[in-house]
Amino acid sequence: MKSEDSIIHLEDVIQNPDDPDGSDGQPSNPSNISDYDPGELGEDDNDHDEPSSKQKKLSSGTHKGGRMKDQIWDSYMEIGDDFWGCKMCQWKNKNPKADRLRKHLNDCSKKRKLTILAAPVTATNSMLPTSSTKASLNYSQSSIKDHFISTNDRQQLEINQKLQKAICSSNIPFRVLENEHFIEWVTSLRPSYKLPTPKTASTYLLDNLYRELCPGEEEKTAENCTKWLQVCRKEAEEKFSIKIVACVTDNCNTMEKMRRDLGKELLCYGDNPHLLNLVGKKASPEKLIQKIIKVQKCFRNHDFVTPALKNSRPVLPSETRWNSQIDCLKSYITNQGKYLEIACSDDRVNDEVKTIIENGSIFRQANDSIKFLEPIAIALNRGIKFLQKDSSMIFDAVHEWIKLKKELPQLFAESYYKDKFAKGTPAFAIAACMIHPIYRGADLSNEMKKDGRDWISTQDKNFLPLTLNLACKDESIFSPCLFEESVLADVSPINWWLTAQQDNPTKISDEFIKMCRILLELPASSAGLERIFSAMTNTITDKRNRLGVEKARKITFINQALKNT
Predict the structure, then answer these.
(1) How confident is the model at residue 215, as a pLDDT?
(2) Which domain holds residue 289?
(3) Same structural domain for residues 502 and 481?
(4) Please, which of 100, 297, 365, 554 could form a disulfide with 210 given CB 3.0 to 4.6 Å?
């Protein structure tokens, strides 16, 4: 018989019958009651172990002879009508034998819980003691939820979302999720919670939070762009005391609609190099270019033609570089003979490409297109390169458009190019050209002069006479030394006007100087700003800091969105 010393006596434990303990108030295996056979016990165990009335009276006193009471009875109480009940659960039995009571005590779920809770804990992750088979059995049958708070999938997701907000709103790097002290701290708060990896936080969780905070706003529509611009204007004025007076954008349909929606709130205009790029793209024969691109791709993307072409690598056009279309045509003309030889000798060249190469009409059209596009390319190249400089202003753009129109009169006679010319020379840009101390409205057509004068008059009627006197170099207002070439070359337009105001403050008002500051500082394009973003793209890369521009953009958006909530 096993020793009873290992059984924990819990006479002092008061059982609350309303407290759920995992037991239904019956033996864990009720079939054992009906199938119980006293004959299965040994002779010693068949003796009736129920204590007599005398034994009950002496149970708390000194033993005075006779058979000792089995200690198993200490874990039970007499209920009445010969029923005995377990002190730890609601199980009861009529006229039980000691062996029956012992069997229930071993199977009692409440007793197992109390035994485990009463056991001393020496380590957070210690192994179970191998000396007690019964203890190991009890532990394996217990529920892990009885010892700490579990975390299901839904709770894991909720905690991850809150953690992601904390990281993004505080500009904490994702690598904190790998910090051993941070992991130790989180584990001490909730051991069952598993921290996400930095990769999961910077991809899946970041994208989910971004979509949650900007539902529907991610789409680039004119309405959304207008709203974002107004938010930026307000923040610039409130935080930095900067007043935004103009807006330059690219020339897609969305941006053009946004500029129309803004109306007269801002001086809005399109990026001039981009407009020139559209002019060149329209002038190029699109259908011819597409056929030649098929040939170029075939000989560029297959290794079997590389040895035959040697250093004559086919050129493909770029959407953002119009001149690359001419380079594509020139590359085809140069390589067409080699293309024909390879196509005739190698069956791996597909039939469609062979047909294009063998078509002499396509070759002649490519030659004629180069002759037509060459002067356009030269003129546009000069204008694009010049207007993409940080120092190029909107009055420079007006001057370049005028030169292009003179050099390419047939091209700008068509309605499409007239429209692009008008977009590149809005009335306020013409006014800037008229008040510039070097240009002074030179080479402007009568129609353009009228548009510029009307715009200046709408600002202040007194501004127009001063503008006209500038064109005439009126010495009663402007000192002759101000028009010397060395002065015009080395002095900025704004400083030139400030000097002229000092010479004649009564005729050049502060309001006119304010208008000059606005018009003469408008850039010709957004190229300078785009270069800043390009530099950021080269700095914030996956290779350098595992973040990337797209993730940085989302984190910045989330950071601002959470601050505004």
Answers:
(1) 61
(2) 284-378
(3) yes
(4) 554
